[in-house]
Amino acid sequence: MSTLSLPSYNGDVALSPAYSAEPLLHETRLSHALRHSHLPARPAAEFVKDSKKGAIRLRLAGQEDGVAVPVFGVRGPVDGTLDVLKPDGLAFVAVRVEGTLKVKEVAGGGTTTSVLCSETRTLWRRGVDPDPCPPSLPFSVALPATFTDERGTYNLPPTYEAHLTGLPGFTANVDYSVTAVASKTKNAKLGIGATTVSTPFEYYPRTRPAQPLPAPMDAISVSPGLRLTPDWRAHESSIVARAPGAAPKAVVCRFFLPASHVLCMRRAIPYHVVFAGPAVALATLLPVLPSRSGMPSVRGARARIQLLRQTSVDVKGEYAPAGATSEMWRVRSIGEGSLFRTGDGPDWLSFSGEVAVNDDVAIGGFKAAGLWVKDCVVLTIAPPDPLKGPVGDMRCVVPVRLVTDPWSPGAVPPGPGGVLVPQASPTVSEDQRSTGGGGGGGEQPELAGY
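Structure (tokenized):
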């Protein structure tokens, strides 16, 4: 459009509409987002470490005050300043950021090592940079979002350590470090024959659900005892009930969890359980289930809800025999849940409860090369004699994805761990297997598929 055809502008300020920060009575706010200025700022403290003789000092930015190990999140950046306290005679100064995944079989030959990241930044070089080496050199190295090996491409895994004692056994370590070097020889390899200072750091990718936890389902007086909503997903199993003088009957168990199955590890995970079937079958089942006080009336009966974590490793090395089993795993409980009766009817019993994740769990599941960490919620009914007694046993396994932060409706606050990444529900292609106790090689009994 030509400027000649533009409409004329009346510069009378008195005709301009009045604006206000908040809507007036006749106005409506259509959209609102939190401003970053209202959110906590990135931590301002530094992690500081000196070389042995005090020639250089590494200062890493964005850390909480007094941390023992620095923390960085998704895509870093690993940033800070390198102070050169003794610059005389230096040829070059550089910083290197590295990450490795190492899986090793205990008392065996299987070992795999994957390089997750390896990035070097040259901060100053004599003969290339015109000025003398400055006393302080800032740097910033962005961590990659993914890494690739011969098996495929994976998200960069968090710092992690796992062990399975015994034979066979394994160790699995995901480690990251940042190293600064000041060398007087241009030909010196980084870290060899030079002044260095190095520190491990924790890679802590923060994640959150894409939606909040649903409200609990309301109790009602008709089957199934709950007012069902699409925010909850039911997982069905069955139990055999053997009443005296009658044919065995099946009782259907419906285990309800939040539909997304993406759950914050710092919030209790709620659930509902409904048992439905003929009255005589429910009467047979009732003694092994928790009463309104939370305890079963049959000695030795266990109705249990656990949060289990399985760590699987593939330790097949270069010299392993063809066809040899190389996968091992470890399963441990990372949370124990409660279960309380909330209602009953002629053909149903309803329960509810919640499970809290143990405080020592800091990261969610992930898959990277030969290491796979998976989580699931498991409902178990274990009567004293499941084969011949009045009630059979049952196990319902539901894969879940644990995230570090709760759902947030607005912008994401910066901080240790950086960006929060919304997580999708577990997919059907991710196979969840476990022994339910300790681990070893060989065929793994199926827990569930997701």
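The chain is about 0% helix and 45% strand. Residues 279-285 form the longest helix (7 residues).
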